[in-house]
Amino acid sequence: MKFFLDTANVDEIRQIAELGILDGVTTNPSLVAKEKREFRKTITEICEIVSGPVSAETVSLDWEGMVREGRELATWAPNIAVKIPLTPDGLRATRVLADEGIKVNVTLIFSLPQGLLAAKAGAAFISPFIGRLDDIGHDGLQLIRDLRQVLATYGLQSEIIAASIRHPMHVVEAAKAGAHIATMPFAVMQALMKHPLTDRGIERFLADWRTLPNYQEAILTPAKV
């Protein structure tokens, strides 16, 4: 599974990228607005940090506007993926941009038919929002399973991005359900790395290490022959 960060915070992205585990970034208008920075500068800076896909979203509602904005966004960096909502106009714009070789991430998917339509329109990525489905009593993870099965059955090449992730178990279950990618907030990414037994193990190892003579120099000091 690939790990994306769902944020427009450059400092958060840089921290995770330095760990060598970050495969891409997704943004949306709300996340960019939260940073109070100029849109293009934010997106291009993220693209310099991350070598994988960086989703930047259009804001027009008509297909011609989406295409126009998508073409512009695609010129900002070679790893831009144009993010477009699942609407009739969004599907039309997706097909136009995909036919031009521009990667499209179709977002705000909440049903199997929506995901299938996005894949047929040529989307490189389809983003089912599992957390928002869970919020209204639906099974977001089942949508991941269904989408993976249908894409495989018909040989459709879209990658499934499990989006609207709320907690680490969403990531675990999305991986088991077959999502190609999980995009998550910075806090969830941090939580994936933590376990109380890891902390206790480190404390125990270090306590035992300190019982060695000259433990502070034991590793870096060359052994005497």
Low-confidence stretches: none
CATH first level? Alpha Beta
Number of helix segments?
A: 11
Please tell me what the overall shape is.
globular
Per CATH, the architecture is: Alpha-Beta Barrel
**Describe the biggest sheet?**
8 strands, parallel, barrel
The share of residues in extended strands comes to 15-25%
- Average pLDDT taken over every residue: 96
Distance between the termini: 48 Å
Structural class: alpha/beta
Order of helices and strands: EHEHHEHEHEHEHHEHEHH
Q: Let me know the number of strands.
A: 8
Radius of gyration: 21 Å
Number of domains: 1
As a percent range, the share of helical residues equals 40-55%
Q: If strands are numbered along the chain, what order do they take across the biggest sheet?
A: 1-2-3-4-5-6-7-8
